[in-house]
Records
---
Amino acid sequence: MTYKDLQILFEDNHLLVVVKPADIPVQADESGDPDMLTMLKAYLVEKYNKPGDAYLGLVHRLDRPTGGVMVFAKTSKAAERICAAIRNGEVDKKYLAVLDGVPRYKADKLRCYLKKFSNTNTVKMVPALTEGAKYAELDYKVLAEKQNCSLVSVKLITGRGHQIRVQMAGMGTPIVGDRKYGNPEKANCPMCLWATELRFAHPISGKTMVFRVYPPEIAPWTGFNIDSFLRIVTPDE
């Protein structure tokens, strides 16, 4: 894969907004597989005929198995302001997920503490006073049910690594296709977690920027009428 295979949603002098495919790393890792940051830097170098390397700020992340909308900063000033907005809770991130099973409650707020274990690259729910534990919070809503699976919308309040995956699995309804936190015997498709919406203020102009992208048209996503829920998973306008 190269940058030519990526879908670019928006670009100006300060921002680059793209769709990250599932199972593509955000930045270079030990796998050596093509990653978003390297591919997009190559895009900037070629498009603008830049000598050497191009600056591109990584301001947020998606887990490798997760696809969807991402924003990158083309200047250090934009990167600094977007990172500050994320820290201050001023960037809205919404996701769609297909769960293995149906949650007990149709809508709920999930709160817990998470700790990352680097030796296994896993995250676990732990007691609040555990050393290294970080507070995690999200809101979810069940949109539809089909064949013991459920389509849910998720709004992240905090952005911890593997957060949605761990909290959904903690309810007994892991994300379909999640090989790390779900049922390996049912992981016969890409993980069904998709970053469907990103809303934030432009770091320079202050204009509200909203980007929405659909999950891939493959099973089990295609078993749900995503169009009919689009308004439910986006803010009122």
---
Amino acid sequence: MLHAIYDCCDEPKTTQELANRLKKDGIGWKQILPLEIEKMTEIRHGQQEALVLCDKRKTAERLRQSGWFVIVVCHEKNREEDFFGFPYAVEEVDELETDFFIKVWQRFTKRPWHIVDTSRCEIREMTEEDLDDLYQIYQDPEVTRYMEGLFEDREMERDYIRNYIRNIYMYFGFGTWMIIRKSDGKLIGRAGLNYRVGFEEPELGFMLGKEYQKQGYAYEVCSCILTLAKEAYGFEKIQALAEPENISSIKLLKKLGFVYTEEVTLEQRKYQRFLYDETKRQEKSL
């Protein structure tokens, strides 16, 4: 777990108020003086449980090469420095909550983010360790009847997951997530939000293993994701696509509050396009 945050900035940007908040959540904080940086680069244990804040490119590079996870702190005096290659940069450090630091640490250590809980399921990010369960679910032809399957080559699918985590999760902060049943920790499907080329609204997608269908999981999970889309990401409109023959998915979309808008053709396949408009739903409820 994340145990400590070190402020290695030449011009400290953290305060006792932030330190107190971190301490309350079980995370230590320490100001590292410039003269102590050399000792930091010589440490060979504990880096995996800490983050360092740094505002100098040269220092940040030395710390990173020594195994530390670096968050760049930007301010007026380092605007001209090139921090290319450092994935995380912040400005107003004191305004950040503990959850931000924990999630950045999880990215560095390749741990999946917990997204949200429903009454029966946990929704979390995808990991390479999910491969076996996904292949087991996708081996049923009913699952891939209306969607693409996985790569036959598992290493290609593994690479896809790695790239997805790096390029989608890290860039957008959302994507396709795993559905985990709380009662036994079983991966039963996946669902989430993604952007599709050619469309403005993010798209809701969902899939459940055949043996977990018709038990209310899809409605439970997708309802939660739609709420999250509004409250966490500020989306007012969500689209969904379903082939005309996919009656069960269309029925679910209508139950969720989606409204049919048009028929579209993508890669020579016809889909019915549905739209979930939170603004219109609120107006109707008044």
---
Amino acid sequence: MSRGKSFIISGPSGVGKSTILTELMKKRDLYFSVSATTRDPRPGEENGVHYHFIDRETFQKWIENGEFLEHAEFVGNCYGTPKRYVDEAMEQGRDVILDIEVQGAEQVIALRPETVRIYIAPPNWEELERRLTSRGTDSPEKIRQRLERAQEEYKTAHAYDYFVINDSIENAVRELDSIMTAEHCKPAERYAQLAD
């Protein structure tokens, strides 16, 4: 059995990452990396499913022990990607999805340059604004901030290994599925399989 690979999925808020990944996980046996956080659980959230809920002292110990692939503090709470769950899934031969922002992706690549990076973009900025507005969850000011941030992060997308445009969920899922298949067809991995 070959070892799984890890795939970073980045893209702006509202681009449809959650929908795409939900559909992709119907086609493939993937491990969706669950982040650790110091924030309190919200109603309906389960430990180990939505987040690994830990206290700040534990979070700090994990940082000191090098147990995160990436971590950051946001609005007074800490968030991070624990290595151990990612490694366990990969040892079982499962591919791992890391749904993280550009800054977190840079931290992961510094530790594990073999991680495959996929950037998901909207077909255009007007469509992204339409999607953000139609969700009805953000004020016009918040939407403007999200669009500005998206345009800033977009400038770093050229550093990613793949670029998927979400013009339709079906196309985006098909492209992600193809990328994962191609990554497992590289000569080094195939030679290793034949040697087993």
